[in-house]
Write a structure and sequence with these properties.
The chain is α+β, with helices and mostly antiparallel strands. Helices cover 34% and strands 29% of the residues. It is globular.
């Protein structure tokens, strides 16, 4: 098993950095371009959720951990922000706590669409952990 871990500040400029690091880390699995974009998009959504909702645009730390075992990629994104009171409700398409009207409420839906498995664990006042898994290379003959 190979593992990578980093911490970034919850700043919007770091979202692209997190996406790029994820792509580079998973490159050892020889993914397709589509698989790379799927993971990049899911990481982007999870990091953006931590920044916007977890820390409510305040500065905090986002922890990113990735591991590979054979063809399986696991990505964990954790914040120590406000947490989610009702995870099931938060994961419904179009649900958002953003009152500015700028957010679509599709972050978790995108994560679920691009990854094989998404698990969200959260506790109000203690933060949120999003665990996403994807098997790389399954479409190859």
């Amino acid at each position: 098993m190979e593992r990578f871990r980093m911490e970034i500040e919850s700043l919007s400029k770091n979202e692209e950095f997190a996406r790029t690091v994820a792509a580079v880390f998973m490159s050892r699995l020889d993914p397709t371009l589509e698989e790379i974009e799927d993971v990049r998009t899911a990481v982007s959504e999870a990091v953006t959720n931590a920044e916007i909702h977890g820390y409510r645009n305040e500065t905090g730390v986002i922890e990113i951990e990735m591991e590979m075992e054979e063809r399986d990629l696991t990505v964990r994104i954790r914040d120590r922000g406000v947490g989610i009171e009702n995870v099931a409700r938060a994961m419904e398409p179009m649900y958002t706590t953003d009152t500015s009207g700028e957010r679509s409420g599709m972050g978790f839906s995108f994560m679920e669409a691009f990854m094989d498995e998404v698990l969200v664990e959260s506790e109000p006042g203690r933060g949120t952990l999003v665990t996403m898994k994807k098997r790389i290379g399954r479409w190859r003959p």
